[in-house]
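Ticket #4471: structure export looks truncated?
Reporter: QA, pipeline team
Priority: medium

Steps to reproduce: submit the single chain below to the structure queue and open the exported record.
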Amino acid sequence: MKTKSIIISVLFIAGTMVMNSCSTNTIWEEVTYGQEEPSYSNGELPAMLQVHTDRVEITLYKNLTHYIYLDGVLIKTLGNEKKVTLRALTPNTQYHLSITAFDGEKVLKKEQTFTTLKSYASVVGLRDMDLYGNNEEEASYIRSLPGGDFIDCTHRYNHYSDADYRLRRTDAYGQVKWRTNIAAYYASVSEEGAIAAASQHTAWRVDAETGTVVYEYQIGFKEGYINDVYPCRDGGMVIVGRSDTPGHFYFVRLDANGQLINKEEGDLSDELYAVHEMANGSVVAMGKKGNDSMVTITFNAEGKIADTSTNTSEDRDLDYAYGFVQSVRDKNGNIYFLGNYELWTGLYYPVSMIVKVDTQGKIEWVHTLHDEYTEYNPTGLYLIDDDKLCLLYTGETGHYTHILKTHIAFITTGNEWLQEVTFNDDYAALYAWPVNNGLTQFGIFDKYGRILLIDTEGK
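Actual output as written to the record:
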């Protein structure tokens, strides 16, 4: 355990002190604020602590003036401030918290010693990579391959027609191994390293070693389009999107020769946005129904509908900014989709989310990353140590300041929050990947084509 000297930065909000009085033998009734509030009997002061790596968040339950001491440093907060965050704490360090308040007749007090969480990562350096070549190209996304190579989609700077998009494979140092001339807007890489790519109306199965097209498929729509593709272990491919009929999803399952196995359209989902193969050869696709319901549709290996699942929340607006950027499958067969939507917090704000789908294709949980006045946009999701997820997302804070922050967050597959590492706009990361399974080193691919190297504990 470390000793330390700390600097605590706390926002002091001025307001009117509200004093509540009661008799000494009164026990205030319990109220639920995410948990049951303890009684005020015997001078006990209820307060909930959430301990993080570099801060502690305190929830106060009554409109009293609270006097908070952290290792002897006094912070006074008025009764209208229910949430207090003590920042700039040292990771993996013990602190003593003391809170007192006066209810009009007696002094209420809470004492607690806590230890901040261990730091999982810290930046140790960066190195430049010239991936774009004379500033003529920029990357739309990057996906990692088993063994350390990368698949990226590039296009000519400020050009976005089909003829300007390219798909290529590079090694860890940015050396190009192959490059295709297909006009792929995006691509997906399976856990086995297979590659599928797509544009708005065409999908390709691509040989990972040579970059040659194994086969392609045209959906033949005028108004419909492709949202995602995935390369299956049998050499086939699945395609999902929206059909020509408004409010109808579109699904295609192909075999290893690119021949149609089955095609589905219908109104079980308004549109399908992402798809991933399950361990048994089935696939699960993420979509939506209406404005507030996320939907999964499970298709068997023959491309037939096998099951559905729904998760609904009135705070969502899925008609705007809803979509998915990446998905991974863990060793137990569960699938995690990284996406975004708009959340109602008095105003609508873009938020990032992880959706866990179990081995039966059912939505198990939805973890939303959001903060008032901050726009969170997801960019990367990786599975590490078999039971941890590493999420990369960016946040633009403020209506007028537009301060860009980049975040790496660690969360367990059981939806337990571990840690977040934040960078300023000088390191506005777009893509990230684990260098090895032990997560002894982690790299971020930033908007300038540089790699940031991060040492991590891996547990």
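Status: closed, not a bug. The export was complete when the record was re-opened. Leaving a note from the reviewer for reference: Residues 47 and 60 are 5 Å apart (CA to CA).
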